[in-house]
Amino acid sequence: WPGKGIHYRMHPQNVGCLSAGRISACALANNHVLDWGYDGLSETLQTLNAAGIAYSGAGNDADEAMQPAVLATAGRNRVLLFSFGSTTSGIPHEWKTTGVSPGVNLLDDLSEATAARVCDQMRAHQQPDDLIIASIHWGGNWGYEIPPEQITFAHRLIDEGVAIVHGHSSHHVKAIEVFRGRLILYGCGDFITDYEGISGYEMFRADLALMYLVELDPSNGKLISARLVPMQMRRFRLERASAADAKWLCNLLNELGKRFGTTLRLEEDNSLTLEWL
């Protein structure tokens, strides 16, 4: 994309890594999906379709970009994954898809009106027993601050029936909230990236990642339990984090969660159990 400083690309044959990892859906509304222009986006969509991996958040037109990734469960429920992007994460405004042009499902802002509009759009796809996840690429890459408008926006989505607000963009984990019994991840952090060796932000420990293993009540989408498994990225591989690193993450999330009434309990196997008021 002309004028953009960082351009990510991977050979389509590497999609086998996603299949091997049993990745069933992708949230595509982010600030890199159009790094290589509309041809690059088209190649991404074709590759995911060929691999049988569902996606949301980008498409050949606005209708496709807003379509949810639909995931079956063992019960009657389906999970609808909707993907949204915010310009606060660095997504260029010109990447926004229109009725006839490809692009990203880009939020105009994080206002009350925008929240109401996207909730109406999500409900239009919802069937009885469906659970909705709103995945939002928002905010900067570094820092633990959560802007008030993100909190207000996430709360409105929960009030309108969203089961999980899945926030991302920061290269490290951020605070977790359980609002009205439903999970909000303001920044889930990276899982595996090529950032290893980039200096200047070591204090954020971006090499540490979390697997979020979440159980919801299928009748109402409320959180039953959440187990977080600390991992460490090293040489393009993931391995279990050390006991010391698991404790560091636990202490960090407990400090960040004070304002939201959430705490993490460190288990004997170095996993973390989420507790909330």
Explain what the structure shows.
The termini are far apart. The chain is an alpha/beta fold. The protein is 23% helix and 28% strand. The protein has helices at 15-20, 37-51, 62-66, 112-123, 148-159, 243-256; strands at 25-27, 54-56, 58-59, 69-72, 78-85, 103-104, 131-137, 164-168, 176-179, 182-185, 208-216, 223-234, 237-240, 262-266, 272-276. The protein has six helices and 15 strands. It has two domains: 1-138, no CATH class; 167-277, no CATH class. It is globular. It has a six-stranded mixed beta sheet with strand order 4-5-7-8-10-9, with helices on one face. Strands 11, 12, 13, 14 and 15 form a five-stranded antiparallel beta sheet that branches.
Domain module tally: 2
Number of strand segments: 15
Structural class: alpha/beta
Secondary-structure element pattern, one letter each: HEHEEHEEEHEHEEEEEEHEE
What is the overall number of helices?
Answer: 6
Which descriptors apply to this entry?
6-stranded mixed sheet, 6 helices
Give the helices and strands, then pairings.
Layout: H1 15-20, E1 25-27, H2 37-51, E2 54-56, E3 58-59, H3 62-66, E4 69-72, E5 78-85, E6 103-104, H4 112-123, E7 131-137, H5 148-159, E8 164-168, E9 176-179, E10 182-185, E11 208-216, E12 223-234, E13 237-240, H6 243-256, E14 262-266, E15 272-276
Parallel strand pairs: 1-2, 5-7, 7-8, 8-10
Antiparallel strand pairs: 3-6, 4-5, 9-10, 11-12, 12-13, 12-15, 14-15
